């Protein structure tokens, strides 16, 4: 059996040599948060809400509150467990210590491997590159958009496989770069708001757009789902704690700083969109809202062609860090024997190509031009059920005194006979791992649980017949059904393995990686 270090680190095939600094970990978060969402989904959200500005701003505020509530929960888990790769996998196992060993890991594995793809950002990368080259989005270049998206994820995979340290340096640069892009949008919006710059063909501003529209409950739920997708990435550092120089410093200082900075910039960018783009155009601008924003400021010039290309580099940064982080999660899952052919995917290069394969498959397979919204929803949806489970698990740990959660354990560890793979590390952590622990406020736990239950259940509600979701070529129920089915497939995989083998399958610390 492999012997863990204080951080829970073990010697594994293909492990990176150079550890990530705090700056690199901030870049992991910034690059994932600032990807497609803030540049592509605000207009989609605005359309869901039928142009209701007050509700639009309120939901962005609610989204920020939900994100920080989730961040507090993830922080509590991370500081009470070994610093290991895997993120939610570790939290699910500890939150449900008496679940059959391997069950939750298999369910999570199917979610993160099959649906943790980079297809949405790769597609948006291709979309913005084509828009920069042609100056229009007439839907006539769908094949080219997908081809460029495939080239994007392929280049990222090759970089991580062959030049891993260069890949880290590149996403550090892109992290700074995209903060500057957000600052440019905010600065442009401020100049328009103060009257120092007049956008082209402007007929109305945010002050003249009242709280019109009465969106359905379904539309509000879908809008909130899109908003949370736009914030997606705040948890990215938790996936690769084993790759960091100082995980505690990252969790307590660097990660909160990165999330807070991006959240503040997001709200200012949203206000800038409202100031510069007329309501009628914002409702119809789709995923190219940022490109239209720059056209309003700079006109139909070479600048308006270059800036969409600049935004595509932001998408590239997202693909780069997701490929990095999710590949390490894939490897960790294989090290615990959750995946088919686990011994093969224990090599980090093979885990990278697994992420590449799923991304390309999801990107090129759907023929419909509604692919983007479907991929966005499919990417985020299963995570809502995972968040529900790990929040329930945290409530159990907090209320069950026998678990001694958040305290220094006695010589007799709780649940010696439980299925938790962390029991054997509890003494090690509490004896010498003297970092202060953090407890998520009860209000944060309640908010995160209720928000994710809402997001998990409401997509099953039929939308009004007049809504765009009802008339889409992709049925409204498709993404929640597919997302939930993938989770159930993970459970079925666990039981199928037990049924087909004469001996029990070994998982977690019972399994010896090659």
Task: Supply the key terms.
about 525 residues; mainly alpha; Amino acid/polyamine transporter I; 20 helices; about 0% strand; globular
Largest sheet: none
Strand content: under 5%
How many E-type strands? Answer: 0
Specify the CATH homologous superfamily: Amino acid/polyamine transporter I
Class by alpha and beta content:
mainly alpha
Number of helices: 20
**Architecture, CATH level 2?**
Up-down Bundle
Envelope shape: globular
Work out the count of structural domains: 1
Determine the CATH topology.
Amino acid/polyamine transporter I
Notes on the protein architecture:
The chain is an all-alpha fold. The protein has one domain (22-510): Amino acid/polyamine transporter I (Up-down Bundle). Helix content is 65%, strand content 0%. The protein contains 20 helices and no strands. It has helices at 22-33, 37-40, 42-48, 53-80, 88-95, 103-115, 119-134, 142-162, 164-194, 217-231, 247-276, 279-284, 289-298, 302-335, 342-345, 348-364, 371-399, 423-432, 442-457, 478-500. Helix 5 runs parallel beside helix 17 (371-399) and helix 10 packs across helix 17 (371-399). The radius of gyration is 23 Å and the shape is globular. The model is unreliable at 1-11 and 409-432 (pLDDT under 50).
Ordered list of secondary-structure elements with their pairings:
Elements: H1 22-33, H2 37-40, H3 42-48, H4 53-80, H5 88-95, H6 103-115, H7 119-134, H8 142-162, H9 164-194, H10 217-231, H11 247-276, H12 279-284, H13 289-298, H14 302-335, H15 342-345, H16 348-364, H17 371-399, H18 423-432, H19 442-457, H20 478-500
Helix pairs in contact: 1-9, 1-11, 1-14, 3-10, 4-10, 4-11, 4-19, 5-6, 5-17, 6-14, 6-20, 7-8, 7-14, 7-16, 7-17, 8-9, 8-14, 8-16, 9-11, 9-14, 10-17, 13-14, 14-16, 17-19, 17-20
């Amino acid at each position: 059996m492999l012997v863990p270090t204080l951080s829970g680190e073990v010697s594994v095939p293909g492990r990176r040599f150079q550890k990530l600094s705090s700056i690199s970990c901030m870049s992991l978060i910034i690059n994932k948060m600032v990807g497609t969402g803030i540049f592509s989904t605000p207009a989609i959200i605005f359309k869901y809400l039928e142009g209701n500005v007050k509700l639009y701003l309120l939901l962005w505020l609610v989204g920020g509150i939900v994100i920080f509530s989730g961040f507090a929960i993830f922080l509590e888990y991370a500081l009470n467990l070994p610093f290991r790769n895997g993120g939610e996998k570790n939290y699910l196992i500890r939150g449900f210590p008496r679940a059959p060993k391997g069950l939750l890991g298999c369910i999570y594995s199917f979610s993160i491997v099959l649906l943790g793809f980079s297809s949405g950002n790769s597609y948006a990368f291709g979309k913005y590159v084509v828009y920069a080259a042609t100056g229009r989005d007439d839907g006539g270049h769908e094949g080219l958009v997908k081809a460029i998206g495939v080239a994007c994820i392929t280049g990222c995979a090759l970089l991580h496989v062959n030049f891993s340290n260069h890949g880290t340096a590149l996403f550090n640069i892109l992290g700074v770069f995209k903060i500057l892009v957000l600052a440019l949008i905010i600065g442009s919006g401020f100049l328009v708001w103060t009257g120092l710059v007049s956008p082209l063909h402007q007929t109305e501003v945010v002050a003249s757009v009242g709280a019109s529209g009465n969106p359905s409950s379904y539309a509000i739920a879908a809008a909130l789902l899109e908003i949370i997708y736009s914030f997606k990435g705040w948890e990215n550092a938790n996936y690769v704690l084993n790759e960091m120089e100082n995980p505690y410093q990252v969790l307590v200082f660097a990660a909160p700083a990165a999330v807070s900075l991006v959240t503040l910039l997001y709200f200012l960018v949203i206000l800038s969109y409202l100031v510069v783009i007329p309501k009628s155009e914002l409702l119809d601008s789709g995923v190219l809202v940022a490109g239209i924003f720059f056209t309003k400021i700079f006109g139909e010039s070479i600048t308006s062609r270059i800036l969409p290309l600049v935004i595509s580099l932001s998408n590239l940064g997202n693909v780069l860090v997701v490929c990095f982080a999710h590949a390490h999660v894939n490897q960790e899952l294989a090290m615990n024997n959750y995946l088919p052919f686990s011994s093969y995917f224990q090599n980090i290069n093979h885990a990278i190509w697994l992420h590449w394969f799923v991304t390309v498959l999801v990107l090129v397979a759907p023929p419909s031009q509604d692919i983007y919204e479907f991929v966005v929803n499919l990417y985020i949806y299963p995570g809502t059920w995972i968040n529900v489970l790990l929040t329930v698990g945290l409530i159990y740990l907090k209320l069950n005194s026998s678990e001694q959660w958040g305290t220094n354990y006695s010589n007799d560890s709780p649940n010696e006979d439980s299925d938790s793979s962390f029991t054997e590390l509890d003494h090690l952590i509490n004896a010498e791992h003297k970092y202060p622990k953090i407890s998520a406020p009860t209000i944060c736990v309640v908010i995160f649980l209720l928000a994710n239950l809402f997001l998990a259940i409401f997509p099953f509600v039929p939308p009004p017949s007049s809504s765009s979701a009802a008339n889409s070529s992709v049925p409204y129920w498709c993404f929640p059904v597919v997302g939930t089915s993938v989770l159930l497939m993970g459970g079925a995989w666990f039981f199928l393995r037990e049924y087909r083998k004469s001996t029990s399958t070994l998982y977690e610390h019972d399994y010896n990686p090659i």
